[in-house]
Each structure stands twice: as structure tokens, then as C-alpha cells.
Amino acid sequence: MLFSFCFLTRGSAGFIYIYIYIYIYIYIQMIDLYWTVIPVMLVHYFWSHPGAEYNFWRSMVVVVLTWVWAIRLTHNYFRREKWQWGAREDWRFTDMARQHGQNWWWVSFFGVYLIQQVNILIIFANPHVVFLFGVCLPLYMVHSINKPLNVWDIIALVICICGIIYAYFADTQLHTFVSMNEKLKKEGEAIVPNLDEGLWYYSRHPNYFGEQLWWWGLSIFGWNLGGAWVFVGALINTLCLAYVTTLVEKRMLKEEYRVEAYKMYQQTTSIWIPWFKSPLKQLPKEKDN
């Protein structure tokens, strides 16, 4: 469709401009906040375009869900940053900047910024044009095909809602844990090395699991309308989050006060998908000579 091509030509220049502005004037961390805004802009762009075709109720459900997801993620960002705008840079970006040195300007563009655009952008003119897949592709599909609601829409809705709620409670429990440790540290008391309660008892990264539920649930909306390839965007996003998970785990094991506790946590607790605890592996005892 023509409106997708227009979005490509205008949007690409705008995205590059935003990156330059963020890199020069703000922290690269701002890309995280920008990630929560773009899907909302996209869903309204597709919904309001004169050439859009869609089922009214499916469209309303997806628009509302996108807003709820964005509000939750934005709220979590500001809560984590103590309600300040860009007060600090994400440790992951700080570590990568230190690692790449003078090359960070182009590494951050291709490795951090551009890969998120590949996940966000949805631009194609018709089925005969090469598609640029992204996690927001289902938003396009929902506003390109008018098809009656069916059971798959209900399944997608339930998965999306479960993902948003699950991620909210996981992030809230993490925030409570971090706040408690900050208080203990100020009072000069021993801090708790590891969060192993609530949703974090069943998996080591329940917030990531909830986020993935949201994106895969959204993909079902698009798949239900005939776009089997919409899962590519969700898959790319999952692979990116898997890489982030490895960074988080390595960081945990670098902090001396929690190394042993976290190693035990890794042995007994599922990494993403909630599951029952595994038995702790006992190291073989050395035989007495």
C-alpha cells in the first residue's frame, strides 16, 4: 500500500535524526523510552489512514492493548529512574560504550539503535515488495484486512493481557526488592543478595517472559489474518532479549556479594518460563586419603 512506502521514506530520515539528537544531546538510554512511544504512534497511523481496512472491534482491542502496554512500560521506566528523565544511563549501554571506546558511535547506531528499528518498522507497499519485518507488523495487518472476529482473536487477547499483567507484577516485585536493598544499605545493614520470591521464585526473568507473551500474543492477531510471517518480528525480538538476558546473568555473577546465591538460583530456577524448582546439584565430596 502507498501509505507504507510514504512511511518508509519519511520515517527513515526521522529515525536517523532522532538517533543523532539522542547520541549528541542525551543518553543512548533514551532509546528505551522511545521504544515505548513508537508502537502507539504506528497503531494510530495505520488506524487513521484513509486506505485502512479493518474490523472495528479488533482494531479497538489492539489500539487499547497497545496503549496499556506502552503506559505500563513507560511507568516502569520512570519508576525505575525515580521519576526523573534520563537521570542515568542503562548499565548495559555504559558497559558496551566502555568496551568499544571510540567505535561506540557507530556500534551504538547499528547494534543498539538500528536493530530496534528493524524490530519496530513495518513498511511495505504490497505483497510483491520485499518486507521489512518487525514486531509491530501485526498492527499493520489488523488495519489492512477486514475479517470477522474468531476464536484466535480471543486467544491473542488473553495472551496479550496475561503478558502485560505478568510483566507488571514482575517489575513491581523487582522494584520493591531494589528499594528494600537501597534502604538496608543506607541503614548500614546487610542487603539481600537475590530476589527469589513471588514470580521470581518460578523463573529468573519473569519480566522478560511477560514482555515476550505480549509480543507473541500480538503476532497471533496478525497470523489470524493470513500473515504467518508476522512471527519473524517476535522471534527477532526474542533473540535480542535472549542476548540481554546473558548480559544480565554475567553482571549478576560479577557482584561478589551475590555470586554464590545466584549460582544456586541458576541451578534451581528456570531462566524464562515459569516452572517448579529443580533440585540443587550437590558437588561430589572429596575422598579422604
Which stretches of 5+ consecutive residues score pLDDT under 50?
A: 1-28, 118-133
Shape: elongated
Main sheet specs: none
Structural class: mainly alpha
Radius of gyration, taken over Cα atoms and rounded to an integer in Å: 21 Å
Give the termini separation. 79 Å
Average pLDDT figure: 79
Number of H- or I-type helical stretches: 10
Count all strands and give the number: 0
Q: In what range is the share of β-strand residues? A: under 5%
Helix content bin: 55-70%
Could you give the order of the helices and strands?
HHHHHHHHHH
List the keywords.
mainly alpha, 10 helices, disordered N terminus, 289 residues, 65% helix
Description of the structure:
With 289 residues, the chain is mostly helical. It is 65% helix and 0% strand. Helix 3 packs parallel to helix 7, helix 4 packs across helix 5 and helix 7 packs antiparallel against helix 8. It starts with a helix and ends in a 21-residue tail after the last helix.
